[in-house]
Structures are given as structure tokens and as C-alpha cells.
Specification:
344 residues; alpha/beta; 6-stranded parallel sheet; elongated
Length: 344
């Protein structure tokens, strides 16, 4: 919705335009009726009178026509002056309003903690932002292009305008307070530099970087990226898998991990499922009976994954389980444990 101040200025501009058109019509009709000018001459006289350019009269004016001209000059000067002041004030106010909105957004970003910083709002960055929005995750986008800024305004995502190569821009996005950093720049060299900068500011941040060349994988890992994604490789593997195991890939594609009401897979911290200090096993959780969900994976405290873990597996502190279920079963899981679950 438009700002009330913007609506006010627009109404004043419409008023000024109506007054200008009215003066033009009165001038043309007046010269036509009072001075007996043709329509073209009447229009010409009206325009040069309103604009005060100082050209000569078409024919000498009689006293009535001179008095009408004086009236037209005084009226037009007032109305044109009013119109110019309204338009100028509107342009300046728009700049002030945009600046005020940006400052307000910066204040909001300064309050973010444990949020996600997305560097670059291209195809991959936009997809990441939309997915995080579906998860209700707090995030900030860093973008240097003024053209892309307009898309960010339309999408309504918080952003910082600037070059991610500069530490000042990273600090504005709150990298030192963030939990995760996604570098989705098109250039591997830029991603490498940004990853180094982000890691230097926040050594504990989880960094996910995009890479175009496989040769950049190890370099980005060495620079501090926890995960390096090669979109082209993933796309090729997926297409080949559709040929080799089409049924399996179709099943995986139909598993939804986005949105609020159609989630099929979730990752849950063990601490959120039990407050007991005693060691528990997967069998002790009894999730299948309580929620209908099935545990299909386990991630230990060291980040190692176990697929289809045994029922007797002891759940270590700081570990996580991956559960699979229909959307309604996932909702029961959330309701039973009253937890905010991390999507896998």
C-alpha cells in the first residue's frame, strides 16, 4: 500500500494538473470570444501568456482583451508556481521516504540474531530466500546492483545494498551475529573472497557457498566453507538419476520439505524430543506410535549420518534424527512435542 504522505502529494498533483488545464481552456475560450482570434491563434496566445515567454501579440489587443490578458497572467503565474512547488516537494519527499524506509529496515536488521545472510540475489540466491521464507527463517540479502534492489523491494525481503567484498557491508548485514552464511555469487573468485571475509568476522558461522567449477571446490572448503554446492553438477546428476532410477527419483521429488502444511521430512534435535538426562534409544522415543512418523536417519554429535538406524541405537547429546511422515503426521509431531522443528 502507498504511504499516506505519497497519496496526499498525488492528490495535490492531480489538483495542480486540473487547474493548469482549466487555465488553458479559459484562456483559449477567452481569446476566441473576447479578441475574436481563431482557435489556433487563441491557443498560441494562451500558451505564450501562461509561460510568459514574451513573444508578440498576434494582432493588437483592445482594452477588454488586455484586461483579460492581465487576469490570465496573474492566474497562471499563481497556478504554475503552485504546480511546480507541489511536483518538486513530491520528488524530494519520495527520496526522503525511500531513505527513511531503508534506515528503518537497517534498524530491524540490527536486531537480528542467529539469522541467515544470503550474498547475491541471482537465481540461486532468490531460490534460497524463497525457501527460507517458507521456513519462517530470518534472513538478510546482500546485493550491490541497483536494478536487483527493485526486485528485493517488490519481494519484500530485508537487504543491505553494497559490495560483499567490503567488511562494512558484511557487518551491516550482521554477519558477526548470524548463524549461517550463503554465498551465491556468480563468480567463484568472488565467493572465495567473501567466504574468507565472513569466516574472519565470525569463525563459528556455518558457510554454504556456490561454485561453478569443480576446481574451486577444495579452495572454498579450505577458505572456510562448510558446504560447497555445484548447481550444474547437481542438475546433471539429477537428470541422469531420472534415467537410471526414475521411480525412486519421482518419489524423492514428491517429498516436500517446503511450506507449512505439506512437510514430509524434518530434522529434529534430540534435546527437543526428551528432557530426560538418561540416555535414550530410538525405541524409547516411540515416535511411530505417538505421531505416526518414521525415523529414517540419525546424525551424531560429530555430524556423521546413519541411514535407517537400529531401534537400539543410543541417542547422544547434540545429535539429531531425521523423520519421515505425511503432512498430518508431521503436524502431530509438532503438536505432541510443541517444538519448532528444523527442516531437513
Amino acid at each position: 500500500m502507498d504511504n499516506p504522505l505519497v497519496k496526499l502529494f498525488r492528490s495535490r498533483i492531480y489538483t495542480a494538473l486540473v487547474l493548469l488545464v482549466t487555465v488553458l481552456i479559459v484562456g483559449v475560450v477567452g481569446y476566441r470570444c473576447i479578441a475574436n482570434y481563431s482557435w489556433i491563434d487563441a491557443l498560441y496566445m494562451t500558451v505564450i501568456t501562461i509561460t510568459t515567454v514574451g513573444f508578440g501579440e498576434v494582432t493588437p489587443l483592445d482594452d477588454q482583451s488586455k484586461l483579460f490578458t492581465v487576469f490570465l497572467i496573474i492566474t497562471s503565474v499563481i497556478i504554475v508556481g503552485y504546480a511546480l512547488s507541489v511536483i518538486t516537494e513530491y520528488i524530494l519527499s519520495r527520496n526522503d521516504i525511500e531513505e527513511l524506509k531503508y534506515k528503518r529496515m537497517q534498524k530491524k536488521i540490527e536486531s537480528f540474531k542467529n539469522h541467515v545472510v544470503i550474498c547475491g540475489y541471482g537465481r540461486n540466491g532468490k531460490q534460497a530466500a524463497q525457501k527460507l521464507k517458507a521456513y519462517n527463517k530470518t534472513f538478510v540479502v546482500i546485493e550491490k546492483s541497483k536494478k536487483v534492489e527493485e526486485r528485493l523491494k517488490v519481494d519484500g525481503f530485508p537487504y543491505v545494498l553494497g559490495n560483499a567484498d567490503e567488511d562494512e557491508t558484511l557487518l551491516k548485514a550482521g554477519v558477526e551475529r548470524a548463524s549461517c552464511f550463503i554465498s551465491a555469487l556468480p563468480s567463484d573468485a568472488d565467493n572465495l573472497f567473501v567466504v574468507l571475509s565472513a569466516k574472519q568476522i565470525n569463525n563459528n558461522i556455518n558457510i554454504i557457498s556456490r561454485a561453478s567449477q569443480e576446481s574451486s571446490y577444495q579452495k572454498l572448503k579450505f577458505a572456510g566453507a562448510n558446504n560447497v554446492i555445484l548447481p550444474d553438477k547437481i542438475g546433471g546428476d539429477h537428470m541422469a538419476s531420472l534415467v537410471v532410477v526414475p521411480g525412486l527419483m519421482e518419489f524423492i521429488d514428491n517429498l516436500s520439505i517446503v511450506g507449512k502444511s505439506n512437510i514430509n521430512i524434518e530434522e529434529v534435535a534430540v534435546e527437543k524430543l526428551s528432557f530426560s538426562k538418561e540416555a535414550l534409544t530410538i525405541k524409547d522415543l516411540d515416535l511411530r506410535r505417538k505421531t505416526g512418523c518414521t525415523i529414517i536417519g540419525y546424525k551424531d554429535e560429530n555430524g556423521e549420518y546413519i541411514v535407517n538406524p537400529e531401534a537400539e541405537l543410543i541417542l547422544a547429546p547434540n545429535s539429531k534424527i531425521i523423520v519421515l511422515g505425511r503432512p498430518e503426521q508431521i503436524e502431530v509431531l509438532n503438536a505432541v512435542y510443541n517444538i519448532e522443528v528444523e527442516k531437513a
